[in-house]
Write a structure and sequence with these properties.
single chain; alpha+beta; eight-stranded antiparallel barrel; about 35% helix
Length: about 230
């Protein structure tokens, strides 16, 4: 509700600012101030200010949203470009270096597998793909170098003449195999298959590329072997 301000100025007197008394001038000034306050506090002015503030807030929110969107798109774009242009290092395959000794697994050209273990036990599998059945098991001992040649009754020259001129002395193995178990189709046929004191004499010549030539002198069999694991 607007506040009424009463001005006690005589009716028969014209309002001339120059002729106003001090008291009348103060009344007029008070009246003007009240009018201005009423205008400022009017509902229409308040609503306009609120509307303007709301529009400004909406504009700021819209600008921030656009900036965030542009930032996200730029980040994704640069990530894609970087992944496409970055040169990937080739995956290096780990090379397993095997030692040049009898211990380990040797796959034969006839699909079989010899396994010489550190505890002086051996296995001879009919197939390197089947290690649960159809195999011989036993113990072994061996000699190498000059000891192997002496056991076989050869000199190095004689041995090289018969088996190859490039054979190294330290790569010659004379092996005695004593099988004590034969498993065939999950059945133990040891007593049928083996004699009580059966021993196989085996000659192994290891080459520098981890291949080998094997000779079963007892059964007169020859194998070409390749080492597959230590």
């Amino acid at each position: 509700m607007r506040k009424k301000v009463k001005m006690d100025i005589p009716q028969n007197r014209k309002l001339n600012l120059e002729e106003l008394t001090n008291e009348e001038y103060e009344i007029l000034e008070s009246y003007t101030t009240e009018i201005l306050k009423i205008k400022e506090s009017s509902p229409s002015t308040s609503k306009t200010k609120k509307k303007t503030k709301l529009q400004t807030l909406k504009s700021i929110t819209s600008i921030i949203s656009v900036i965030v969107f542009i930032t996200i798109i730029s980040t994704i774009t640069f990530s894609i470009i970087d992944s496409l242009t970055t040169k990937k290092e080739p995956v290096k395959k780990e090379v397993v270096k095997l030692n040049n000794s009898i211990i380990g697994s040797w796959q034969s050209s006839t699909n079989g597998l010899f396994v010489f273990q550190k505890d002086n036990s051996f296995y001879w599998y009919n197939s390197h793909e089947e290690l649960e059945d159809n195999y011989y098991k036993g113990t072994y001992n061996y000699k190498t170098g000059n000891d192997a040649l002496n056991e076989m009754g050869f000199t190095l020259e004689e041995f090289q003449k018969e088996y190859g001129a490039n054979i190294k002395l330290e790569n010659i193995y004379s092996i005695n195999l004593k099988p004590n178990l034969v498993l065939k189709n999950k059945i133990d046929i040891t007593q049928v298959e083996l004699n009580q004191n059966e021993i196989w004499w085996y000659l192994l010549i290891i080459n520098d590329n981890l291949t080998a030539n094997g000779y079963n002198k007892t059964l007169d069999l020859k194998y070409n072997l390749i080492k597959t694991s230590d």
